[in-house]
Amino acid sequence: MPSPATSPELVLYGYFRSSAAFRARIALNLKGIVAKQKPVHLLRGGGEQHEADYKSVNPQELVPTLVHDGDAIGQSLAIIEYLDEIYPEPPLLPRDPRGRARVRQLAYIIACDIHPLNNLRMLLYLRDRFSIGEDARAEWQRHWIGLGFSTLETLLAQSPLTGRFCHGDAPTLADICLIPQMANARRVALDLAPYPTLVRIESHALTHPAFEAALPKNQPDAE
Amino acid sequence: MPSPATSPELVLYGYFRSSAAFRARIALNLKGIVAKQKPVHLLRGGGEQHEADYKSVNPQELVPTLVHDGDAIGQSLAIIEYLDEIYPEPPLLPRDPRGRARVRQLAYIIACDIHPLNNLRMLLYLRDRFSIGEDARAEWQRHWIGLGFSTLETLLAQSPLTGRFCHGDAPTLADICLIPQMANARRVALDLAPYPTLVRIESHALTHPAFEAALPKNQPDAE
What is the pTM of this model? Predict the structure, then answer.
């Protein structure tokens, strides 16, 4: 990755274990941008994301939020597209519209159809309102991750556009979404044997310092 | 909207009631593009989206899919960004990066944090595996839609950038996501009184022929 340049006007509110914040960290690292990190502890007390200070930054009470010169941007994919527009190098999307569509499709399969079904607040609803036990909640998570991963494996394995990363040999938005989701899959003990292409891409990505430095365990707020 | 031009190389697989397909129809209409529509009945038999013919087009077995010159693109937001890149006028995103980030944030609040929690396959899981009854499923839907709508109402009501549409006076990706989600909210009888800005924008959007023509009831496969 490019050598980091401090950008004091950029602040990233996140949480070490949030996979959406993990995505934003990878993107910043790939761009070689150092943002000031402000941890928001999602489990401490009733969750710091619900406190007035943070709600004024992000009324959705979710992480991450990027603040740039006083403007707050929520939603990890909006943050990443924004970073890619204001810091174009290295690009996080291909140059050609079909390639961009392919990468966005792969990313949205994760961001729209996998991740929302295993985030914290949804799991708390299943537990507290529907009395769904821990094993059944883990099974629910494995179901949705597995369904999405099957699609991704098919799309990636059958396309000549797939390289060492999801699209060619350089990381894109698709890899930025995939790697945190792989960590979530391992956390709920999903069997990854049916997804050899995903495992191969993950192994390669984790040799890249931008991904490695963004891992939850390498954050200052890691427990 | 611009006068329609037939683009025989564009095919949209959809379903009249799918809000993701509804989004893609609005975008095509705003661009003045006539795509060949191929209905995929999500409820007939075991669901036509699971049949081999459609799986070869979209291995995720979801609608919509746009096929352009033989290349298939899944995920409604990937389709819309693609259309906006290959047919730039009228734009579906603002020109400035901060404006684009704002519109994408609004769109993803719906596409990532509301819609996936009330789509068909997820509701079938709640019913069939967790034995969640119809009333509780509707309450679940109202909960997630209401939570997202509260955020949207706050973000829209407090910003001088909000106009007759979500961002200024022309429709963008945010409105394309909002209008179908409003239809879903009405279907589960969510009280919309707390969201006057959303209701106002919806009323205005439905006077626009691109939105009106994309309504589920105006599709050839409507029941």
Answer: 0.95
